[in-house]
Amino acid sequence: MKKNILLSALLAISVSFSSLAGGGWTPKKKKGYFKFGQNMLRSNKFYSPSGDIIDITTISLYTTSIYGEYGLTDRLATIVYAPLFVRNTINKQESRQTGMLISDGDMANSIGDLDLGIKYALTYGKSIALSGSLTLGIPTGITNGGEGQILQTGDGEFNQLIKLEASKSFYPVPLYVSTLVGFNNRTKGFSEEFHFGVEVGYTFKEKLTTTFKVYNVSSFKNGEAPTSAGNAIFSNDTEFFSYGPEISYKISDKLGVSGSAAYALSGKRILATPNYNLGVFITL
Amino acid sequence: MKNHIIHCLIPLLFFGCIGTDVIDELMLEPKIVVDNPLLSLKVGDSHQFSAQYFDSTGEISPEEVQWQSSDPTIISITSQGLATAHKDGEVTITVSTSDASIDILLIAGDNTESASTDKIGTFSGSSGYTAVGTATLKEENGKITLDLSSDFRTSFALGTFIYLSNSTSGSDTRSGGLELGEITSNGARSFDVTSINAATTLDTYQYVIVLCKPASITFGFAELK
Predict the structure, then answer these.
(1) Does any domain span residue A244?
(2) CA distance B125 to chain A (A)
(3) List of chain A residues whose C-beta atoms are within 8 Å of the C-beta of residue B20
């Protein structure tokens, strides 16, 4: 069993930005938030298992996705993160001195791993909005893509992420803070994970919201490391601490655009590069 | 070409093309390798040494080498590398070119003994990855083989390969090393180096590398000595 946790971690970063979208708040009944996003990662730097940044062949991951939260009731919402198209590439290499091809590049295209979840408001109408959620990671991506069968658009395992999120608005000051803690139960011998995130946002003139987010994933290192997959780049126990800004602008009451960037300040077995996201969102 | 650009530009709005990494090829210190070294030479006997010069690209180059004895009264040596032992003692034979040299300690005594040419290295992990065990590069009947010991153990990824290289850098190894083969399990393994590249000698490469080939990451290496 050889799994590409690297890519799943990259996907996890992508998800993490959306996952704080509602924070502790849930949309009211028949209300919702939907975002069409494009995510890009491209790096020739990598956090090794010791946490050092090392050079690698440039690896890229482009994800086109839809994220949505929709209120079934005033307290219960469904969550969907659907990476409709994931493109994973690895660069070709050429000699600077001779111009000769050293190695071919490769690519894999497919749908990514689908996340389906429910979120329930544990408090309603309180100053601090508290919610709990369960997200199921469905392994709909591929794990042996490209001509070399080494590229992946998913991690190949079914996971269950339980999160507790709390949010507070400081209205009339247009400021809010959201936090989350989460436990990700993973299958196929992968280690469980602890998730932690904080998000602070401020809205200017009711249209422009600037947000700063941090997100951390720590491994419990309790997975059975298969002898054939060992402790390597495509293996278990990926960890990172990322931070970054997001700006969103509401074009109208229902339509807006957003852009974000995040960088893993520290990590293990993950690309060391900014992760960029552009999106268009609608609110019902 | 035009079609390729159009093909790439349209999806670039959302999806990127496969790019190109331009790699600087490794430049090495030139070196001299003696093919048939001795530990000792019997007094009264002669031995014809031969040596090869490796240039900064790691290739064998027909550079003329100079031979010199630290004490010709004990062991003398001609400009062509023919050494003769005259009396008991110990000398240093210096082999040199304009930009490289090597010293060989040689004893004149009761017998002639060849020095082992086997190259042995002990693996150590790199950047938090695991690599343990030993690698032995040896020549038998004109064939060079690399043996990994039975206790050899390493980290694995999709595409883990054994390389011979003159650098521990993953990208240098990928561009300038000799790929011996993929490994998918731990334990003993033997590679027929000569069948992969007949020009390889015991001294062409300095390291055995465990490489995650797709990402050019060195999991571990053994320096051959």
Answers:
(1) yes
(2) 11
(3) 91-94, 105
Q: Which of A9, A86, A233, A149 is closest to B15 using CA atoms?
A: A86
Domain ranges, residue A26 = 5-90+100-275
The answer to whether the pTM exceeds 0.90 is no
Nearest chain B residue to A268 by CA: give it: B128
pLDDT score, position A225 = 52
Interface check for B185 against chain A (CB to CB < 8 A): the answer is: yes
Q: Please provide residue A103's backbone torsions phi and psi, each rounded to the nearest 5 degrees.
A: -155, 150
Tell me what pLDDT residue A229 has.
41
Is this complex scored with an ipTM above 0.85? no
In chain A, how many domains are there?
A: 1
* Nearest to A88, CA basis, from A64, A72, A68, A122: A64
| A259 Cα distance to chain centroid | 14
For residue A221, give how far its alpha carbon lies from the nearest alpha carbon of chain B (Å).
15
CATH, residue A65: 2.40.128.130
pLDDT band at A224 (very low <50, low <70, confident <90, very high): confident
Under an 8 A CB cutoff, do B174 and A59 touch? Answer: no
Task: Say yes or no: A93 contacts chain B, CB-CB below 8 A.
Answer: yes
Contacts of B84 (CB under 8 A, 6+ apart): B45, B46, B75, B76, B77
